[in-house]
Every structure is written in C-alpha cells, then in structure tokens.
Amino acid sequence: MARIEELGDEATVSDTAPPPPTAETPFPLRPKPTEQDVSTTPSLPPAMDSVRSHTADEIVQMMKKTPLFMTDLADSADGRPAPFSPHTLQSPPHSSHNINPKNHETQTDEYSVLDQEENLELEAFKALQYEGTRAEIALGFKERGNEMVAEKRWVDAKEFYTKGIAALKAPLPAAQVESPASEEEQRKEREKERKVEEACYVNRALCNLEIQNYRSTLHDTQHTLHHLNPHSQKSLYRASLALLALSSLPTTPPTNSTTHLTHALDLIARGLALTSPSLTSTNISSPPSPQYTAFTHLRQRILAAQSSLTTLTAKRESEEERKRREKMVLNAALHARGIVVRFSSSTANPPDLEDAVISLRPDAGNPTSELWFPVLVLYPCAGRSDFLKGVSERSCWGDVVETVLAEPLEWDSGAEYTTLSGPRDGEGKGGKGGKGKGKGKGKGKGVQCFVTTKDGGVMKVGMRLRLLDVLAGGKVEVVDQIVRVFVVPIPRVEGWVAEMKARKGQKS
Fold this sequence. Notes:
Blueprint: H1 46-52, H2 56-63, H3 112-116, H4 120-130, H5 134-150, H6 154-168, H7 174-178, H8 183-210, H9 214-228, H10 233-247, H11 254-275, H12 277-280, H13 290-337, E1 340-342, E2 359-361, E3 370-379, E4 384-392, H14 397-404, E5 447-452, E6 458-461, H15 467-471, E7 477-479, E8 483-489, H16 493-507
Parallel strand pairs: 1-7, 3-8
Antiparallel strand pairs: 2-3, 3-4, 5-6, 5-8
Helix pairs in contact: 5-6, 5-8, 6-8, 8-9, 8-10, 9-10, 10-11, 10-13, 11-13
C-alpha cells in the first residue's frame, strides 16, 4: 500500500526479536510445589490458577496497583512516582522492550513479579501527574508508537498513539499551574502540543487503515483536517484510501459507494493542489514530488473503481428492469388464462425455489408463450412426495403420473403405484375379434389424481385433462407458485376421499 511520507528517523527497529508469546494471567502464580507435594489432580489453566491461588484480600491489594482501581499513589508498585522518560514507557505484552530497572526497587515478596511486570497505564498515570509537560509525555508515547509501526505491530502502535492523545487532553501538571510560563512560551508549548497531536492522529489513522478499521481511519483523518491541520497530506491520502476500501465492500450499498468515491476524489484534488510541482518547486522542469505521484496513482485507482461501479450499477438496473417487466407479463398471462395464484406467507413472497417457479417459455416477455409450472406430486397414503421443476400447461395429468411412475418406486413394496395397465376412462375392450367402446376402467389397477379446491375440498381430475383445463376453471388455486396433485391408488380412493371430507367438516 502506497504511503505519502515515511516516518523517518522517528521509527527504529529493535535489534532483538520479540520473545515467543506466553500464557498471560491476571495475577502472579504462586511457586510450584516440590516433587514430594505433587498431586495426581489435574492442574488448572494458568488464568484460573492465578485467581484460585490468592485470597480475596490479596487480589484486592493487587488490583489497587493498577490505575483503574488505584485510590492512592502509594498503592502503586513502588509507592512513588518514577522519573519520566519516553524510553521508560513499556510496550504491550510480548514486546522486546523492558522496564528500566533503575525505576523499580527490588522486591522480595511473592508479588515482585506483578510489581515489575509491564504496566503501561500505571507509568502513564505517574508521568501525567508528576513528570514533564503534556507535550513531552505525548511525544514519548508517539515515539514508542513509531517503534511499533516499524515492526508492523499495528494494534500495539495504535494503543500508544491513543495514550499520547489522552495525555494531551489531561489537565496541566501542577508545576505549570503554580508557575505559569510567559505568553510566548505558552504559545510555543501549544504549537508543540498541536504538532504532537497531529502526528498521533495521523499515525493512528495509518494503524486503523492497516487493520481495516476504515471508519476509524476516517474519524482520525477528519479530526486532523478539521481541527489541527487542513493541509495534512497524510490525512488526505489515508482518508482517500479508506473511502476507496469502503466503496468496495460487498455490504456497501451502490449509492453509498458512489458517495465514498466522489468524496475521495475531492480529497485527492486537495492533495494534488498541495503537492503540485508549481507549488513545491521553482524549477518547472523538475520531476514531481513523491507525494504528488502517490496522489496521482491513487486518483487513477479511484477513477477505475468509479468506472467499474458505474458499469455494475447500469447492469444491475437493467437486470432489475428486465425482471420487473417479465413479472408484469407473467401476471398478465395468468390473468388472461384465469389462473389464480396465491401466496401463503404474510409477506406475499414465495418460498425460495431457485429456478423452480412459474415461467413463460420460450420467451418470458411474450404473454402468449407457454406457461410452465412446478408440480409437487403427493402420495398421501404413503406419506411420500416427488417434485417436478417444470411441467407445461399443455401436459395431461396422465403424462405427469407416467413421468413420476415410469420407474418402480423404491418405497412401494406392494406395487400399488403403477401407471394404468388397462384402458383409460371412456375406453374398453370390445368383443372377441376387435376393438370396441365400453365402460372398462381398469378397476383395481393404477392410480387416480386429485387436486384441492379453493374451499378446501378435493376434486378428481381425469388423466386426459390438461393442467390448463383444471387450473383455468377458477376452482383451483396455485399456492406459492406450486401446483399440488394427490396421487392415490384406485383401491384406496374411497377411504381417502372420505377422510378428506371428514377433515373439511371438522374445519368448517
């Protein structure tokens, strides 16, 4: 990721590598027992063991040594404020920087580990109260933050910069209140504080940017531009990067993405104006500054993102318009055929069936195209079902049955669910020597189809009827875009119909 400026000499890398992470405990662990005292009981986790190994009074005393619970400075680790120096500020856990031993007296009790452990808040508390000006204290935190940045420890660096900002907002030290400096010295001190505060905010924005806290990055850069330095090039650059990143997030609405990119271009324009070669150099032929080049490259990235967003927005709007138009045509086709479609949910939205929905084929924009319906085939006597993603309105109900019963059903051990082996309704075998008409219906063989009516009853459908012939009558509803048909073995039809009538009577 490109940067406008380097941190310079403020950021140095330690020669020693940080030690490997160790298990942290809220309180020091008591010494381990000797081999003769070792128990067979499993040991507790370090954090829990550190609490269980002390009494309540001991824990209260240890907690009073932290700034959050401290009621008296005498409760601190050594009972007195340590001389402040920026290099006495400790790093967060797992840092290679140690406490200056000159600032801590040697302890002989079992709490010496706690007394000498890294405690950044306590050192800041002491320093703010007794040592140095606010600018000096904040500068110390900033320098330590720069060291963390050099090691790419962004979270640790962010904490140091935050503490530096807090130090600048603390009350003036007692010495400065009792003996105020001259107006000129106060002016210089305020200017020094402003510069340190700007550096802390700008560098904390970098940390937030690296850990992808983009809105926090914008907060820090806006504070700098509005209250500290309206010409801060780093703030302009990092705010533009944050806006570019926000615009590309999947959760960002297109309207907000457009706003972010427009705002980023405005900030880039301000940065280019500040770093223009005509302003930074008297020699017109001199090459542009690195800052100007960085702003130029970032502007190209934002323009490319803006162009891509415009293209995607146009495609999305076109797709939404196509779907809206197809929905209108589909509703018109259903209305023209007299087919009633109802949604069972309170939100009037069908369940998620992916592409298994009512559609017009082959042309979804032509109301005279053929309607296709998802069909749910139910076997109520067996508690089973089958699903067909698309069946034409011109298909016969017998075709639907033959499609699902073309192969024997695995669960149909009694072979009850089979296609008609005899003649269909209205046909029969004639006498010996030829065909003829009769009333044979293949009794005892095959299955019969039923659909539910709008009033909750059931209606028998002939195998030669088309789907459209049944659906267009107005007696049957298509619920949630699915046509439901009940398939019942002919020997069980009478009992099943009686059961359905009884259920309808109970509901009424």
